[in-house]
Specification:
This protein has about 280 residues and is α/β, with parallel strands linked by helices. It contains ten helices and twelve strands. The protein has two domains: about 15-110 and about 250-275, 3-Layer(aba) Sandwich (Rossmann fold); about 115-245, Rossmann fold. The chain binds NADPH dihydro-nicotinamide-adenine-dinucleotide phosphate (NDP).
């Protein structure tokens, strides 16, 4: 499926974001802004892949000469499996999740820029250092897998997930941080410096069964979801936390993908403001 952001193929290098659903994706706007800013002649489309047709969709893009693609919900684990090779960043993370595909002579190289995007947004844009912080991650899906190893330097990491086995699996995959543990939502009974909501509950306006005690004084509550205040963000705000949504992460992970594809690093602040003003 192409949409109004798709440009005709006039010798431009073609890129796309593949997901299901995909209509809401802001990635075409972001990459269009990066391309304009850096004078790169590219096209970037949204592509809806059938839930049982991700690999066929990507193989079709490669056959048509697309230079690369971003991968979004729910295909990040599947993307990992279809890659011919993986970057060191993906291999060493042990996450099994890929969000950036690079077409190298018809072979697919997989990378994951979500972790870099999250860390850049938290440390550079929000000026909140991660070193020596006690961090709580809510959720253990593709997004949580992709970002965990970028939190190296944290004092401790606690992962809480509705399905406890998935939180335990995620804990087992972390090698670079010593103090890592899994808990159930109702076992969370101490304050944290940084709380990251990596569940998809914001999409359905669902509140998480978490105690107000988790919001330490001066803490940052970060929801990877963007576009509107989620129940998690509301609870955090009502408990005095500094609150942020995931728009900055979205733009920062896109900037890293753009750099991988084009060798040019775009400026992100103006693009974050531009996309936020459209919301
Ligand atoms: P997944 O589908 O892989 O994982 C969803 C997670 O949410 C699982 O941990 C799941 O728990 C949990 N969950 C879902 N519903 C509930 C519920 N009712 N109660 C409690 N937990 C629930 O999604 P992703 O990890 O890929 O994405 C998660 C969120 O992060 C999405 O909102 C996505 O848009 C956002 N995101 C934002 C990015 C950005 O750049 N800003 C980048 C990547 C993701 P369980 O295991 O029990 O099913």
């Amino acid at each position: 499926m192409t949409d109004k952001y798709a440009k005709p193929f006039n010798g431009l290098d073609r890129y796309a974001v593949v997901g299901n659903p995909i209509a809401h994706s802001k990635s075409p706007l972001i990459h269009e802004a990066f391309a304009k800013q850096t004078n790169q002649d590219i096209s970037y489309e949204r592509i809806l892949a059938p839930l049982d047709g991700f690999e066929a969709t990507v193989r079709g893009l490669i056959a048509k000469g697309y230079k690369g693609a971003n991968v979004t919900v729910p295909f990040k684990f599947e993307a990992y499996k279809i890659c011919d090779s993986l970057t060191t960043r993906v291999v060493s993370s042990g996450s099994g999740a890929v969000n950036t595909l690079i077409n190298i002579d018809g072979k697919i190289l997989g990378d994951n820029t979500d972790g870099v995007g999250l860390r850049s947004d938290i440390e550079q844009n929000l000026k909140f250092p991660i070193a020596d912080k006690n961090i709580l991650i809510l959720g253990a899906g593709g997004a949580a897998h992709g970002v965990l190893n970028s939190l190296v330097g944290a004092k401790s990491i606690t992962i809480a997930n509705r399905t406890s086995e998935k939180a335990l699996q995620l804990v087992m995959s972390i090698s670079d941080i010593n103090d890592v543990r899994a808990k159930m939502f109702d076992e969370l009974d101490v304050p944290y410096d940084l709380i990251i909501n990596a569940t998809s509950t914001g999409l359905t306006d669902t509140a998480l069964p978490i105690s107000n005690i988790i919001f330490a004084q001066g803490c940052l509550a970060y929801d990877m979801m963007y576009g509107r205040e989620t129940p998690f963000m509301r609870q955090a705000r009502e408990n005095g936390a500094q609150v942020a949504d995931g728009l900055g992460m979205l733009v920062e992970q896109a900037a890293e993908a753009f750099y991988i594809w084009r060798g040019v690093r775009p400026e992100t602040q103006s693009v974050i403001q531009q996309i936020r003003s459209l919301a």
